[in-house]
């Protein structure tokens, strides 16, 4: 099927609508003249002291065995939000939840979590714990942010999360390329690495 037929140019799409499409992610991104590549990103990590790490890990380990991950509200409140609020503690970042943006009729919707500091960082909650389709939604939102924000930063970062699993991605604004990290970060097992990456990205 020609890529031009994957997206109806006359139809209105929200970010969540792209999550529901069954076409290959690279073909959907090609409609926006963006390429997709997959490789390990080897992301830098902050060397700051994480004074809340032990407490955060203990709280997550306590609730996780009794938490139904089929509930989006539970994943947001008990797994994703605690990680992001601790990132705010370590940085000077601000956090917007359900942040609405409208670029055009095909790039619009609400960003689950939008963090701003020296850099911006976007977190998409993977609906139905589907990381692959969640990453597609993240890629579309990064494409929209490229056109929405005024910034001289060449790289836009983001992550998709099921709450207990995180995957990073980045968008190169010059080459118009989205890179999907091959590495996954588990919570709570990889919590320290996850936090150090998030802090470093927002402060660099």
Structure description:
This protein is an alpha+beta fold. Strands 1, 2, 3, 4, 5, 6, 7 and 8 form an eight-stranded mixed sheet that branches. The protein is globular, with a radius of gyration of 17 Å. 33% of the residues are buried. The model has no long low-confidence stretch (mean pLDDT 93).
Topology, pairings included?
Layout: H1 15-20, H2 25-31, E1 35-38, H3 53-63, H4 72-90, E2 94-104, E3 107-116, E4 120-125, H5 131-148, E5 155-161, E6 165-172, E7 177-180, E8 185-186, H6 191-203
Parallel strand pairs: 1-7, 4-5
Antiparallel strand pairs: 2-3, 3-4, 5-6, 6-7, 6-8
Kindly report how far apart the N and C termini lie: 42 Å
Mean pLDDT: 93
Fraction of residues in H or I helices? 25-40%
Q: What's the order of the H and E elements?
A: HHEHHEEEHEEEEH
Shape verdict: globular
The tally of strands reads 8
Tally of separate helices: 6
Low-pLDDT parts are none
> Structural class, judged by helices and strands?
alpha+beta
Largest sheet: 8 strands, mixed
Radius of gyration using CA atoms only: 17 Å
Strand content: 25-35%
Main attributes?
single chain; 204 residues; alpha+beta; eight-stranded mixed beta sheet; 6 helices; 25% strand; globular
What can be said about this structure in brief?
The chain has 204 residues and is α+β, with helices and mostly antiparallel strands.
């Amino acid at each position: 099927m020609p890529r031009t037929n994957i997206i109806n140019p006359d139809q209105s799409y929200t970010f969540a609508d792209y999550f529901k499409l069954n076409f290959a992610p690279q073909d959907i991104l090609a409609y926006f003249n963006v390429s997709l590549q997959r490789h390990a990103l080897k992301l830098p990590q902050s060397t700051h002291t994480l004074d809340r790490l032990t407490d955060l890990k203990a709280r997550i380990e306590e609730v996780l065995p009794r938490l139904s991950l089929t509930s989006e509200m539970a994943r947001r409140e008990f797994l994703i939000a605690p990680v992001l609020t601790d990132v705010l503690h370590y940085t000077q970042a601000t956090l917007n939840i359900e942040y609405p943006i409208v670029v055009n009729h095909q790039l619009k919707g609400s960003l689950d979590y939008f963090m701003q500091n020296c850099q911006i960082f976007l977190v998409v909650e993977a609906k139905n714990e589907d990381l692959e389709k969640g990453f597609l939604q993240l890629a579309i939102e990064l494409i929209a942010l490229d056109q929405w924000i005024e910034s001289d930063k060449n790289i836009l970062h983001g992550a998709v999360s099921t709450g207990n699993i995180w995957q990073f991605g980045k968008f190169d604004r010059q080459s118009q390329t989205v890179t999907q990290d091959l590495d996954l970060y588990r919570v709570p097992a990889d919590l320290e690495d996850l936090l150090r990456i998030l802090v470093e990205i927002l402060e660099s």
